[in-house]
Each structure stands twice: as structure tokens, then as C-alpha cells.
Amino acid sequence: MYTDIYKQLRTKQELDELIYEIDILLESLYQTNGEAFDSILKTKVRGKIFDIFSAAFSGGADKKKYLLKLKENLSKTTYLNLVLAIEPSNDFLDRISFFVKKSISPDVVLDINYDPGILGGAVMIYQGNYRDFSFRKSFQEEFARSRDKIFQTLEVKQIDTNGKL
After folding, report:
1. Helices and strands counted in the chain (H then E)
2. 4-44: per-residue pLDDT in tens?
């Protein structure tokens, strides 16, 4: 029933905006006997969501029930928490959201955080499963494996430097 709406939602921020729009529409049902609803729908709701809502309401859907049920469904949304070293572009968001919705579920929404400290790659958390594919983790693992060699090399360099003085 809400598949078209979930297709439009890429991030948690967009979902939060939609919930805000739903709240405004629900409030407008009580203003001037609901006459403000169409005006609010046209001016406060984003384009593609406006089209979906308009189609549903022109098809005879009860506005209040539709919006309340949608809001209830949205509150049960599953998130894929994604930590990136960069701030993603819209094109990147489109591609990764498409991949996640196709691979996991059409109802999954990205909760994206920005942390340049991971250096590159990504950290993902989904339904309690944590996966670290960041460069920071790779560098830490490599350093842990090579630590003794690195310290030996530094000690030799320090002895050579001290011996020359």
C-alpha cells in the first residue's frame, strides 16, 4: 500500500521530513473544517510525495485514516545505519539506497552519519549486526600485525643515529 512512498525515502532525514509533512496535513484537517488541507498539501508537501498523496486521495482514500496508518507504518521502519568518511552526494544516495532496497528490503531506510576518522570505506549496522569495512580498521589491523617490525626498525634507526653522535 505504501510501496511508492518507501521508494521515495532514502534517508532517515527524509523520513523525518515526511512525518513532519503528515503531521501538518493531519492538523490541517481540523482547521476551517478541512478546507485548508488541499492548500497545505500543495504548498507544504514535496513533489513526488504530493503526487502519491494526491493519487491516493483522488482514488477515494479517507485522508485521516490513510495518513494515520502511514505514520504508524513509518514508525516501524527498519534502518541501516551507515557511517561514511564523506558526505554523500544525491547521486551516491540514490545508488546506495537502490542497492539496499533491492538487496535487503524496499522498506529499509538509510541512517547516514559522517565520520572522517574512518578514513574511507564504511561502517554498517543493521538489526544489531555490526560490520566495519573502514580503512581505519584495515590500518589498525595491519599495524597490529606489523607493530614489532616497525618498533624494531625504529630502534635500529635510533641506535644508528645515537651511535653517530
Report:
1. 7, 4
2. 999 999 999 999 999 999 999 999 998 877 788 888 999 99
d(CA 118, CA 99): 22
Phi, psi of 76 (to 5 degrees): -100, 10
Burial (0-12, 13-18, 19+ Cβ within 10 Å), 118? buried
Q: Which of 78, 118, 75, 80 is nearest to 97 (CA)?
A: 80
Answer left, alpha or beta for residue 115, where phi above 0 means left and psi between -120 and 50 means alpha.
Answer: beta
Which residues, including other chains, have CB under 8 Å from residue 122's CB and lie 6 or more apart? 82, 83, 84, 85, 133, 134
Q: Where are the domains of the chain?
A: 3-75, 78-165
CA distance 158 to 51: 70
pLDDT digits (tens, 9 = 90+) for 95-114: 999 999 999 999 999 999 99
pTM for the model stands at 0.79
